[in-house]
Structures are given as structure tokens and as C-alpha cells.
Design goal:
Structural class: alpha/beta
Shape: globular
Helix content: 40-55%
Largest sheet: 6 strands, mixed
Number of strands: 9
Order of helices and strands: EHEHEHEEHEEEHHEHHHHHHHH
């Protein structure tokens, strides 16, 4: 059990206790926790656990590196178990999680096992967990739609291929570890009939997934992962099925409502680097599989139209009509505000869909 820890003292006990209570037996487990320069007492809490469970809990303390990849890599080098499972300190496991996942690995000679992830106050992947899979692959398991580290990996696979996490990266750092593990595994199993891992939203705990990534390292990491996919999967429908995931989530996912709040320079860099990935990896037929609005985003990215993309991400969705209520008595008359006073209307304050699309079409006709 590998846990990178940074300032998680309020939630760490629940995580550790869920591991100690595993039905597989605590005597079959080893916890390697790397304290990444915590200042809130997390290190002292871990040390207490290590003293209480000698030989069962190992604690490493280091200066803060700012991202979980480094601590996970350090723990991999120290781990001695047959399997590795990566947990985060603010999450917890179902009691039978490890027993069921290890059984699936042993039954199917699987090098990777996905245990069902349950979201608590936040979204969790659904597609890979619609059915159990015994001894499948990256395609039959649909594992590409769950690329976080919260899975069971056979340690011999990790060591044989030197799999490690990206370091210093605060988003999607798991993918250069998880994707080649999927592609190189003898088989992949899925445990979908039991909630194995609880992914918890903590309002008082910083989740990296909520952050807007620094463009240069983020897109460089995505490029590395796409190169891995291209190197292992021949061109064709199966490769396209995998690439669609990065197109729809990793690339277009950067152009949501948060995009307009970035600086002009940062927005321009996002568009430039995303456009390079589109040109290098995403052919026309693959883009055509997207919904219309996503295809439009791809076109604007490819054309480098930062202003139009910004407008597109700030469109106000048409509100649903409210149910009619019983008429109320007319309120007492009030003085009308002077002309030009009062708050600006949403139509004046924000872009409208018709205006944005009209402007985009005009700019495209002009060759912009």
C-alpha cells in the first residue's frame, strides 16, 4: 500500500484504518507512506502508526516536492510486496477491496486489476465498472477511461519495465505509469460488483484535479502518453478508440469555463500546444466523431483563434423554463431606476450563443 502524504492529518486516520481493517488480513500488507514535507502533524501521525505496527508500516520523510509523483516513485523503490496499490491520504478503501482484487489477479494471471471506484461528493469513472472482466485487455476492460493510480499492479510488471510516475507534475502525472501498464500487462481484470475505493471530495483539502495546469509541462506529458499509445497500438479503429479519450478529455477539457479566466498569454499558449497535439495525433475522421460543439472547438484551436475560443467557453446556457406559479398580488409601486443605472443584464454582460457563432463564422470566412 503506497500513500503519498502532504498535510492530510484530518483525513489520514480514516485512510489508514480502512487499510488495517482489510479482510485479506493486515498481516499480509505493508504500508509505505512518504511524507512530502507536511507541516500539520501528518508525519508525526505516520510515525505513531509505524511504532505501533513495526515491520508493517514504513514511513519516509522528505522535503516537499509539490506533487505526488515523486513520493510514489520513492515508495515503489522501497516496496517489497507482490502487488502495489496506490491510495491517496484523503480517500479510503472498502473492507473487502484488496481481497477481491488480489483474488482476481491470481485467478486470471492479471498484472493490473481495476477495483470499482465510488465517488463521495465528486465524480468517479463509470465506463470501466459496468461489468466484471476476467483476464481482459485495455480494450475489453475499457481501462483507458480510468487513468488514476488507484488500482492494483503486479510489482514484477512495474520493475521489469521500469514504470514510474511523472515528477513535478500536478495533473495527469499517473498516465505515463498507468497507460504503459495497461498496454504491457499479460491481462487486466475489473472488479465492478464491489465498491473498492472511495474517492472523496474534501472541501478543506486541495484536490489537484480542480487546478488549471501549467500548459507547457501538461501538454508535454500528454504528448509522452500519446507517443506510448502510438508506439504500442497499430493505426486503425482500436488506436482511434484510445486516442478519442485524450481528444475529448485531456485536450478539449482544457477549454471549459475556466479558460476565459486565464491570462491572455496563458490562453494563447494553451491554444498553440493543444493545436500541435491535434495536428500530430488527431486525424480528421477522429475529430468528426465528436459532437458538433466539440468539433467547432477543434477547428478554432487548429486555426489559433484564441478570442473566439474564449467567447465560446463563456456562453450562457439557456435556462430551463420554471414551472408556472399561482399569480401573486401586485406589489406596491416602486420608483423606476434612472436610465442607465442598475445591474447590467446577462445579455449585455456576457456573450450570447448567436453572437459568438456569428462572429466565429465571419472570422473563418476571412481566413483567420
Amino acid at each position: 500500500m503506497i500513500i503519498p502524504v502532504y498535510n492530510a492529518v484530518d483525513h489520514l486516520p480514516e485512510c489508514l484504518q480502512s487499510i488495517a481493517a482489510q479482510s485479506i488480513g493486515f498481516d499480509r500488507l505493508e504500508i509505505v507512506a512518504v511524507d512530502d514535507g507536511s507541516t500539520d502533524g501528518s508525519g508525526e501521525l505516520l510515525q505513531t502508526w509505524a511504532e505501533r505496527h513495526p515491520g508493517r508500516v514504513r514511513v519516509v520523510r522528505q522535503e516537499n516536492c509539490g506533487a505526488p509523483g515523486g513520493p510514489r516513485n520513492r515508495a515503489i523503490a522501497l516496496a517489497e510486496g507482490e502487488f502495489l496499490f496506490f491510495a491517496d491520504p484523503d480517500d479510503y478503501l472498502g473492507t473487502e477491496a484488496l481481497e477481491r482484487m488480489v483474488a482476481a489477479a491470481e485467478r486470471n494471471d492479471s498484472d493490473v486489476v481495476l477495483g470499482k471506484i465510488k465517488g463521495v461528493g465528486r465524480k468517479a469513472p463509470v465506463t470501466p465498472f459496468r461489468a466484471n472482466v476476467d483476464g481482459g485487455d485495455i480494450f475489453s476492460s475499457k481501462g483507458v477511461w480510468s487513468l488514476t493510480a488507484h488500482k492494483l499492479f503486479r510489482r514484477s510488471l512495474v520493475e521489469e519495465h521500469g514504470l514510474r510516475f511523472a515528477e513535478g507534475l500536478r495533473l495527469a502525472e499517473e498516465q505515463v505509469f498507468v497507460v504503459p501498464a495497461y498496454l504491457l500487462a499479460r491481462s487486466i481484470s475489473v472488479v465492478s460488483d464491489y465498491d473498492c475505493y472511495y474517492l472523496v471530495r474534501r472541501d478543506d483539502f486541495p484536490h489537484l484535479t480542480r487546478e488549471v495546469p501549467d500548459p507547457a509541462p501538461f501538454y508535454a506529458n500528454v504528448r509522452d502518453v500519446l507517443n506510448i499509445v502510438v508506439a504500442h497500438v497499430p493505426a486503425g479503429e482500436k488506436r482511434d478508440d484510445l486516442l478519442y479519450r485524450w481528444l475529448s478529455l485531456e485536450i478539449l477539457g482544457r477549454f471549459d469555463g475556466r479558460f476565459a479566466g486565464l491570462s491572455e498569454e496563458t490562453r494563447a499558449l494553451h491554444v498553440k500546444l493543444a493545436g500541435e497535439l491535434l495536428g500530430d495525433f488527431m486525424h480528421r475522421a477522429l475529430v468528426d466523431r465528436l459532437p458538433p460543439l466539440s468539433r467547432l472547438r477543434c477547428l478554432l484551436i487548429s486555426q489559433g483563434l484564441v478570442e473566439e475560443l474564449t467567447a465560446l467557453t463563456t456562453l450562457v446556457p439557456k435556462p430551463k423554463p420554471k414551472p408556472k406559479a399561482a399569480p401573486k398580488p401586485d406589489p406596491a409601486p416602486q420608483a423606476e431606476p434612472a436610465q442607465g443605472s442598475g445591474p447590467r443584464t446577462a445579455a449585455r454582460r456576457r456573450y450570447t450563443a448567436a453572437g459568438v457563432l456569428k462572429g466565429i463564422k465571419r472570422r473563418l470566412r476571412q481566413g483567420r
